[in-house]
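lol forgot to send this yesterday, sorry. struct tokens for the thing we talked abt
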């Protein structure tokens, strides 16, 4: 994250210590305070999408927290984000998004062969980017609450 996200990145780094070494990222998030887990999953998932779109989210190990990111968006009342994440999962993985990276990668081979996948991904990515300000504001709000404790 760039300078614009300095506070978010600082809180993320502080809260994420130890999380990145976990063998099971979903399980490690589940052991956290629900607001903390929501924040971390949204930063993790959002960073992947911001960096390489939904394709990167679903093909990298961070995709293991896809369901956590939906739950985080719901917890932080980011309904449009939760809906978009669900839409992306349904459109790309009609039988459900595999929680395990290797299973997602196996299924991604089929997804990537679809003739309309590039256009589909571009549309999903554009929808995500259009929601960036709302996500940033909510994450900043969480950070301010953390800092005022």
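and heres what i got for the seq, position by position
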């Amino acid at each position: 994250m760039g300078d614009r996200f300095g506070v978010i990145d600082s809180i993320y780094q502080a809260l994420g210590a130890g999380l990145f070494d976990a063998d099971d990222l979903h399980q490690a998030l589940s052991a956290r305070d629900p607001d903390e887990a929501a924040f971390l999953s949204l930063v993790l998932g959002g960073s992947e999408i911001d960096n390489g779109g939904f394709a990167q989210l679903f093909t990298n190990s961070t995709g293991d927290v896809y369901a956590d990111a939906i739950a985080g968006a719901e917890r932080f009342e980011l309904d449009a984000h939760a809906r978009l994440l669900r839409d992306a999962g349904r459109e790309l993985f009609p039988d459900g998004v595999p929680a395990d990276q290797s299973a997602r990668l196996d299924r991604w081979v089929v997804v990537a062969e679809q003739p309309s996948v590039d256009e589909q991904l571009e549309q999903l990515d554009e929808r995500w980017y259009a929601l960036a300000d709302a996500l940033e504001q909510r994450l900043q709000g969480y950070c301010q609450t953390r800092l005022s404790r």
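The chain has a mean pLDDT of 92. anyway ping me if u want another try
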